[in-house]
Predict the structure.
Amino acid sequence: MTRSVTSASAPASSANLGPGFDTLALALDLRCEVRAEPASSWSIRHQGPEPYLGRQEDDAILAAARKVSRQPLRVEVSNRIPLCRGLGSSAAAYAAGALAALRANGNDPGHDDLFQCVRELEGHPDNAAAAVYGGLVAVVDGSVIHPPLSSKLVPVVAAPGFELRTKDSRKVIPRSVPVEATVRTIGRVAALLEGLRTGSPDLLDLAGGDEIHEAPRTAHSPHTGTLITAALEAGALHACLSGAGPSVLCLTDKGDAASLVESLRDAVGPGGRVMILRPDAVGAR
C-alpha cells in the first residue's frame, strides 16, 4: 500500500445569480483544500479559518472520500469557504474530497467524470459544475455550458454572520408560478447572460428582481433583502442572493469595488463580512 500523500482543492461558488435558478453558477476564489493518504483506518481532521465542526456522519468530505476510495484514508482539510452561507461549501467539499481520495487510490479523473460524481453527491448541479469546472457555468439537462464572463466585473460578497441551510430556505419556494412571472424570468435570464458577457450596467439592472426563488426567500430572510437593496443603492451593477442565502453576491466595476465594500460593512450586520473576490477559472485541481 502506497503511503504517498495526495491533495486536491475546489472553489466556492455562487449559484442562481438572480433569475438563473438551479441553472447558473459562478466559481469564486475561496477554496477548500483536502489532503489524503492511505491508512489502516478512516480518520479526518479539519482546520483552517472555516473548519467543519459537525457530526462525522454528516461530513461531506468524508462521505465523498468513502464513496470513491477502495481503502481507508487519513484525511486533512483546510477550508476557507464560509459554511451554510450560500457559497457552495458542500459542493466544494464533495469535489475536493472525492478528487483527493481518487488520487490517493491512483486515479486522476477528468473534470467530466468528477462532475458526475459530485453532482450525484451534491444534488445541485449548478454548484457542482462551478466547483469542478470553475468559471461561469450553466447546467441544462445535465450538460454543462460555459458562458463568457466580462473581465470588467468584480464579485463582492456580503456574508452575514448567521447560517441558513439550503433545505430550510428551499421550503419557502412555491411549487408553481404564474405564466407571466415565468415569462418575465426568461427575459431576465437573457438580460443577465448578455450583461455578464458585456458588463453592461443597463442589462445587469434589467436582470434583477427574481420572482421565482429570490422574492420568497428574501421574504423569509428580510435581512438578506435589505442587503440586496443596500448594494444596489451603493452602486452595484447587479445584486442577488448567493445560492439560497443568506449571503448576497454583488457585481461591480473594478474601480467601484472598494467603495461598495465600505458601504456594505454596516448593512451586513454583527459577525458578517464583506469580501472582494475574483472569479475562479480553474475549478477542482
Summary: Residues 179-198 form the longest helix (20 residues). The mean pLDDT is 95.
